[in-house]
Amino acid sequence: MLLHLILKDLKIEMRSKEIIASMFIFGLSVTLIFALAFQVAPVMIHTFAPGLLWVVILFTSVLGLNRLFSLEREEHALWSWVTAPVDRGLVYIAKVISALIFVLISVILFIIPFFIFLNLPTEFSFFQFGLILLLGTGSIVSIGCLISGITLQAGLRDVLIPILLFPSASPVAIAATKCTGFLFENKPLTTWNFWLLILASFFVIFSLFGYLVFNKIVEE
Amino acid sequence: MNLQVTNLFKSFYRSPVIKSFSLSVNSGERIGISGPNGSGKTTLLKMLSGIMAIDSGDIQVGNHFIDPEFTLPRKSIHYLGHSAGAYPGLTGEENLIFISGLYGMDALGVTECLEKVGLDSAKEKQIKYYSQGMLQRLKLAITILLDSDILLLDEPLSGLDSNGIQLFQQLLDEWQENKKTMLIVSHDHNWLSSITDRIIYLN
Amino acid sequence: MTFFNKKENRIHAALAILLSVINIYIIITLKPPNQAQGIFGNIFYIHVPIAWSAFLLYFAVMVCGIFFLIKKSIIWDHRGLAFAEIGTIFMFLVLTTGPIWAKPAWGHYWPWEPRLTTSLILFLIFLGYFMLREFGGNPEQVSRFAAVVGILAFLDVPLIFLSVKFWLPEMQSHPQVGQYFDSASPTPTYLVLYSFLSLLVIASLMIRFRINILTMKDEE
């Protein structure tokens, strides 16, 4: 069932490509603005870069989540699963996974220009970087899908998603920035595994919470 | 399957739309629901189908109460509403396959259903390109596919051409033969009284 | 019937006024424990208890949210909203008294001190909560959303606190608190507890007043 729900989102996206395309182009534009606005010494950009990266990821995630959930709103498509004998918590988990896939793909696409534009060094462990990206975006979308589920039914959704998401995701922003910073400085994993732990626990806590309460928020 | 609504309440913006509403529907009965705009006809059907939360009161389907936590009763009810309840980015066929998957059914009947409502030529078209009438036919196809025991039909004729209306009449006869319980909302009072056993007024 | 027509409410109000007047008198006349900070050092006796009360009130929002989601009874929604409102007023006071104390203690108005930062982030989440309450649409539905956001906000607290605490490790958390509590005399501890008590009496009066208004509005 989970796979069935995820494949539906993937199929729609593979046909239109609008979510990934808009996230990628948006991420690229923000990167460009950052590169222009922060024309500082390379040493300085080195310390700024992790924070900038996660600001871009957070912004693009909001964009992607908004689009991903508007799929459910058009023609009231959500009625298909709301009225079906399906555990609605599972729909939330499916949304988290498809959001994770979409955000990660667009991040992989704009991260290359990000490194080139900002002249960042690339001598670090790609595996560890992948792990940070996975846990960081996972945490963002786990709470983001819950908030988008709320705003799916509520008014003022364009404003409410960032207003609720940014402060609640602040631990993610801090932890993911710290991880990325330590990684760029080539510090051994043992000195910053605490931050990975914060990301992982955020991911677990809010996925579980979303799974439990999603049922309460999808009904009109 | 019978349906029992007891003391149902629902309000919007703190003003009650449905107030202490009770209804008992026997298995195989056809009920027409009529009333002015804003009298809560659609609201009632949405609460029965699980789309809308219940403020207080009970809805019993067969032996089970409708509850967000409990998925089983949703299997025996299908709501045909104003919106398609299908993904505009998927084709007609894909939508039916997706929905049958949600109900744990295989997709064998999908083509047959689409043929029955005359959508087989458009089944590989995304439904965002469908006309209003085609969407209405798609909703009918979903209803045939799911074959639920209780059918909630909200303005089932809207957007249908004369062929479509004929098709719907034919389906109604079939559903009556199969002893489906039906709740039909319509503004056309004469038509409603010709096809239902009794009519309930909401105001 | 208005709130103050009831005898018990008048007694409650009188008690709140009496306790606060004594509290303010003590704090103003008390000899500052730290000469360098002058009279500003005494703000400790009001800042810390307000912060305790604010977090307690937000915790109550979460509890009310859980009860509302389980019992669906409107009274838990009113309680949750009242706790959120009064909690936010208290949080605002935390955020204003904090900088007043921080200036003499740290030399600048905004120290990124973990507790103060956590307060700020929670305050922002609750601003979103009120936006949702106000502009989210149908109040019956928004009640459920607000309950979820209220729980989400408090679930976030440990993660926010941990990540802010280790974000700037050189930023000691409340170095002054120790100096108040560790002094040989137990008086500061008693004073803080007394101040906390008087604030709780005020808060409970405000909450009961709000719940009364919300219930009356409902009955109309």
Number of domains of chain B: 1
Uncertain segments of chain B of ≥5 residues (pLDDT<50)?
none
Structural class per helix/strand content of chain A? mainly alpha
Report the helical percentage of chain B. Answer: 25-40%
Topology pattern of chain A, helix = H, strand = E? HHHHHHHHH
Report the order of strands and helices of chain B: EEEHEEEHHHEHEHE
Overall radius of gyration of chain B: 17 Å
Number of DSSP strands of chain B?
9
- The share of residues in helices of chain A is over 70%
CATH topology description of chain B? Rossmann fold
Total count of helical runs of at least 4 residues of chain B: 6
Largest sheet of chain A: none
Features:
heterotrimer; A: 220 residues; mainly alpha; 9 helices; 84% helix; globular; B: 203 residues; alpha/beta; Rossmann fold; 5-stranded parallel beta sheet; 4-stranded antiparallel beta sheet; 32% helix; 26% strand
Architecture overview:
The complex is a heterotrimer of chains A (220), B (203) and C (220). By secondary structure, chain A is an all-alpha fold. Chain A has one domain (2-217). Chain A is built from 9 helices and no strands. Chain B has helices at residues 41-49, 92-102, 110-116, 132-146, 162-177, 189-195; strands at residues 3-12, 15-25, 30-34, 56-61, 64-65, 77-80, 150-154, 181-185, 198-201. In chain B, the strands form 2 sheets. Chain B has a 5-stranded parallel beta sheet, with helices on both faces. In chain B, strands 2-1-4-5 form a 4-stranded antiparallel beta sheet, with helices on one face. The longest helix of chain B is centred in the C-terminal third of the chain and has 16 residues, at 162-177. Chain B is of the alpha/beta class and 203 residues long. Chain B contains 6 helices and 9 strands; from the N terminus they run E-E-E-H-E-E-E-H-H-H-E-H-E-H-E. Chain B has one domain: 3-Layer(aba) Sandwich (Rossmann fold). In chain B, strand 1 (3-12) and strand 2 form a beta hairpin. With 220 residues, chain C is mainly α. In chain C, 80% of the residues lie in helices and 0% in strands. Chain C has 7 helices and no strands. In chain C, helix 1 runs antiparallel to helix 7 (187-219), helix 2 runs antiparallel to helix 3 and helix 3 packs antiparallel against helix 4 (114-135). The mean pLDDT of chain C is 86. The A-C interface holds A 143, 146, 150, 153-156, 159-160, 163-164, 166-168, 170-171, 174-175, 178, 194-195, 198, 201-202, 205-206, 209, 213, 216-217, 219-220 and C 69, 121-122, 124-125, 127-129, 131-132, 135-138, 141-142, 144-145, 147-149, 151-153, 155-156, 159-160, 162-164, 166-167.
